[in-house]
Structure of dolichyl-phosphate-mannose--protein mannosyltransferase:
Amino acid sequence: QIFNQHNAEAPNLEQAFHRMAHMEPNLDHDVSWFLLPSCWAKMVVALISFLCFANSYDGDFVFDDSEAIINNKDLRAETPLGDLWYHDFWGSKLSSNTSHKSYRPLTVLTFRINYLFAGGFYPVGFHVINIILHCTISVLMVDVFSILLGGLQFSNKGRRLNLAPKSSLLAALLFAVHPVHTECVAGIVGRADLLCALFFLLSFLGYCKAFRENKEGHTFSIFWVLVSVILGAIAMLCKEQGITILGLNAVFDALVVNKINLLELIRKLLYKDKSLESAGLLRKGLLFRITLLMCGGAGILYIRWRIMGTGPPAFTEVDNPASFADSLFIRAINYNYYYSLNAWLLLCPWWLCFDWSMGCIPLIKSVSDWRIIALAALWFCLIGLICQALCSEDSHKRRILTLGLGFLIIPFLPASNLFFRVGFVIAERVIYLPSIGYCILFTYGFSLLSKQAKKKKILAVAVLGILLINVMRCVLRSSQWRSEEQLFRSALSVCPLNAKVHYNVGKNLADKGNQSAAIKYYREAVRLNPKYVHAMNNLGNILKERNELHEAEELLSLAVQIQPDFAAAWMNLGIVQNSLRRFEEAEQSYWTAIKHRKKYPDCYYNLGRLYADLNRHIDALNAWRNATVLKPEHSLAWNNMIILLDNTGNLAQAEAVGREALELIPNDHSLMFSLANVLGKSQKYKESEALFLKAIKANPNAASYHGNLAVLYHRWGNLDLAKKHYEVSLKLDPMAPGTKENYNLLRRKLEQLQKKGG
């Protein structure tokens, strides 16, 4: 076979195979694939997994990264480390009604370490860690698959033997290059899934280390069983799926260590057979180990429940529409359809999308829907595999199929909607762990085909082609995750009915200043989902800026009607009403926004602007002061306070506020400029000059800065410098108000002085 590559270690491997041949069939016997020493196999897997995702290393923060990283205060040094244990993944208090209850403190801790080492929000370090984690996990998969496919066997010296080196290499490569993993690797938020998978696998390998084989049979180490439970707990603190490893360890113990025939065991239980002890349950300590796993799992879940609180996370209908269906039958049909789509993503990961909610997958509402075929196909395959896993006379086949199904199904259970409602329809990241089961089943299917095929080389070339296609798909998909624009646009062809896709494309365009194109996508988002309040709010904002105030008001009024506690929409509605000079309504809208979001500095700022327009100066100053208390770095609020006090002749108070503001925001040139104006009027020329020059150094192209410095010099009697800065100001902005008149006055004065001097 051309795919067998002999090397110095190959004879030792073959001898090991012959020693174990009497125990059970060897899966590798019929597999036409590369045979490499363990260290070489791991190096190949590491290299290929790196090549798949290496181009994502310098990508931006995209999609959920903004909320989980950039806007997450738990990453910053000023937040006590202890807060991580009481906050969710997004930085909200777990006790809050708005919390998603996603409790992943260890993942957030790694983000915090990334942030501290990088000295800020620089995405390269975050991406590099994700790539390294995936490579590490893929390498561990070689050992994991060697156990799952070849069994747990030891040499006389107690060293674990790899009885399926070719099969384990193939399965590990399939895992390493699977395109569905791109979201976990290229999306920084996927760190949770990667860390969970790492400790998940370490827990499994730790559990395997608990067993040694000697002349008297299997013995086990309680220490390693407990280590496995602890590693499972760590996996769960990275992401909730991690707890499922304890169940998989129990399944592995029963099937591989104790070699239990599940069908036979079920029969004995049904008929109350007294020979259960002969099945090995008590003799080999299985019940004791399962008890340890169950107690550990129950303890972990109880502690998490106590920290999280009893309230379930609050999700909306757009997040998971099937879970809000009134009919149990409709819910069941759609849940099963979602399962079939997840299975299809594993089989054919070509159509990938960053978000599958908001109409991307319309609900199945009757059995006449043709998509029912997908459910039938899924259960036909599953039932066939389950029957083979239970009823086959071949113990080797039973073991591999049961383990494959176990690793496919059990890690997926937390995302299945069976135990609690989840906040998504489909999420590619949650099938990172279930893909282990897919790789087992694929590899076993390949071995069966190889056994029947006459031209094994053609079959091997076909599998190699699948791997190469997956590598190319990973590279392409990783490049799409490098920026939000590419990521969002890539989803338009996959989920054209997804309102969130159009919303995100529009938001990305708006951030880049392309308002006309953004309007088009926001309108499409509202058309697809007439209750999409965030799209209405953003569209209303753009229309407001384009002075299309009446349509903006209609959209924002509809948004707050649909979601009365939508504080941002209330504030924006107030801004529009203020522009329409409906001041009482604007004031009411602002206060409604503050009622629903008490700590809302931007709303206090806009309320202050309204009061200033109404000449309610004290109310304006109080509103701006509230804004700066809630957000001390709110430069606009500080500036408006200084300017209002300056304009009303309260120079001493304006100076005090200006100095206070500069202590908090020492590098803000607009504050320097405002305070310099106040100091100039107070005839503190030297200090005013210093601040003007500092502001100009920070922003040398501001015409008003040069113009006002020229006025200062004019008052101060430094006419040459005044002339210089008037000219710079006019060069930067020839239409600067008042500057030309002041410059002409200065020129006339200079001419008079020259005449007198002459």
